[in-house]
Input
Amino acid sequence: MSKQIDDFFKNIISHAKEYGFVFPSSEIYDGLSAVYDYGQLGSELKNNLKTYWWKSMVQLNDNIVGIDAAIFMHPTTWKASGHVDGFSDPMIDNKDSKKRYRADQLIEDKIDRYEQDGKSDKAAELQTALDAALNADDLAKLKTLIEEHNIVCPMSGTKNWTDVRQFNLMFATQMGAMADGAEQVYLRPETAQGIFVNFLNVQKTGRMKVPFGIAQIGKAFRNEVIARQFIIRMREFEQMEMQFFVRPGTEMEWYDKWKALRLKWHLALGPDAAKYRYHDHAKLAHYANAAVDIEYDFPFGFKEVEGIHSRTDFDLSQHQKFSGKKMQYFDPEVNQNYVPYVIETSIGLDRLFLTVFANSLVHEDLSTDEKQDSRVVLKFHPAIAPVKAAVLPLTKKDGLPDKAKEILARLKLDFNTQYDEKDAIGKRYRRQDAIGTPYCITVDYQTLEDNTVTIRHRDSMEQERVSIDQLQQIIQDNVGWTNLLKQLM
Output
């Protein structure tokens, strides 16, 4: 990672903490590895991203409904899904630092460094070798690649590696009042299985006809042993998943459709399209016949943000086998019973949060011939901005705060707003820029005379005089969901 890119990533992390977006969990006790808390503005941004996803999936699609399945599930669920026997990653330990790493990610990081150093041929050669080793489940080859390419431990800087071994990522716990009579259950490592086990319930009660989808937002838990890259890899994270049930034989048509729709969804937020790419899986999961990732170019390289997978009928067939319940659908159009195939779209909410944050954080030089000036601004799409408007009295006297609070009381019924009367107005503008507030409304002495205010636009910093009675509509027209969702129709 070049120093400029490394500095930008550090700025993202420090800005997120300084302004109340993301905190290290349990920080007063020196934190907990790979666990983070979302602060007062981070939780607002996160909720807005969830709302955007839910509205686009459920509200805009007549044949998609949402559920909220429990985190705890019958342990046989994870036997049927393959997680008990096969949910593991190839891990390697450094004997000097006593740190454990995913072997494939160490190699992927080396590939990224080759690319950054202009060694595309070596990067391609190593990528081919990595893909071959993963496809063959050749753990010894992974260690050989690490040794041949002089990959060192990020902590110790040494190459004193153990052999590569598989490590199961599920958290296990006990359910029951007495330890000796307790049943072992798992914290779910993904939210998809809660959808699959409810397939019949939703299909029958909702009178759903194939093709149809079931959407869900929920927490998942994985015993990630690598704590790095901020909120990219965490032990507790949130997923937004939709499982789309289709007639066998039509799955590739729907796979291509959802692949295009999901990238369109990301780009509607207004990022640089060049920072996104598709990455087809070289090694398919045991349940898939096609899989692609939508990747974003983070400061540390391209990483997955969302996956689109054609899961065949694996999941429903497995649950049919292990539960003894028929997971079939009668299709009147073809007069046939079948187990539906599934197209999955799965997005990590925390990763989406980081892409939006990285896309939006801008350092602007505002210097002129007369003076040096700059600002840091989060240029969120207005619909997802944590705070929609700030009301600022010009001074703390002469009735201006009373008038400002009167305006605030009207706006807060529809929008998340802030009130700020501390410091000079310029400093207050900068504070709102730093948290991404689209509009600052300044109440001054003219307001008391003619009931108008100055409204300042975040991105352009332009100011205009408008009637207080117009504020509601001006803000709604720009921060409402309509403009954003229209791009998806």
About this structure: The mean pLDDT is 91.
